[in-house]
Amino acid sequence: MDPVSAVETFSTLVTGVEIASKIKVNRIKFIWNKYCRPRIRVLIYGDSGVGKTQFLNTLTGKNAYTVQRTRSVQKYFLTLSSGRVVEFLDTPGHQTAGVIRGETLDEMTRGKINGIINLVDYGYQDSDELQKNPDRAFNVDTKEVKESFLNENRKLEMSRTEEFVGRINPGVKIDWIITVINKADVWFSDKDDVLKHYTQGEYAKLLSSLVHSVKLYTLPFCSVITPFANREMRLILSERDKKGMFETLVAHIESLLP
């Protein structure tokens, strides 16, 4: 073997050993993160009908469509690329479930929650009753949603948000809050107004007291592409857009982990 070939062969072997070593180290780190480090606990909050359960099904790889209503706290788990495990606590959003939500907020005040994902949808909350009688939400003989319907639902969003904001004080440690604006397929044509509402409007003002103690973020999301209230609407969001929103959110969660 000539000297040049020998050097090239040696370089190839060294590179191969380095790659194998990195793979081994990454594998060990993954196993350590998954089985030895504590889970990151995230509270999922939001009004009834914003799509919390479907959001979690999408986020954790359970792609089946669901219309079930959450009646109690449900747990979902996501293993990130680093091996870190995130435990999501899905809370019921209906007004009659205040006691159950209060119990999860008690866990938060005891320091057992790392972050909060507050799910909103710009007033497009759906329900079994609305699917049976969509005229409640739409102007007569049109696909246009009544502004009064959206405004009333945004008030409910604010009410749910106030529940956890009111519990956060200097003695309660929450690392971050992500406002996830779900159902982007429905509201995306009005995205400028929607984003302004959550980053500069009344909703943003509600969270303003936390800005110096908690990291605040706002991200769009789409769990499934489906007609609102069982009535066909103009949908301009593509599956590619939807996938990009999913990847952005997961990467964002991973970047926030301690």
Describe this protein's structure.
With 258 residues, this protein is of the alpha/beta class. It has two domains: 1-36; 38-256, Rossmann fold. Helices cover 44% and strands 14% of the residues. It contains nine helices and six strands; from the N terminus they run αβαββαβααβαααβα. Strands 2-3-1-4-5-6 form a six-stranded mixed beta sheet, sandwiched between helices. A hairpin with a 5-residue loop joins β2 (74-79) and β3.
The string of secondary-structure elements, in order, is HEHEEHEHHEHHHEH
- Per CATH, the superfamily of the largest domain is P-loop containing nucleotide triphosphate hydrolases
- What is the percent of helical residues? 40-55%
- Beta-strand fraction estimate: 5-15%
What's the number of helices? Answer: 9
Please identify, by name, the CATH architecture of the largest domain. 3-Layer(aba) Sandwich
Mean pLDDT: 86
Structural class computed from helices and strand pairing: alpha/beta
Task: Write down the CATH class of the largest domain.
Answer: Alpha Beta
- How far the N terminus sits from the C terminus, by CA atoms, comes to 52 Å
**Computed CA radius of gyration, to the nearest angstrom:** 22 Å
Model regions low in confidence, pLDDT < 50 over at least 5 residues: none
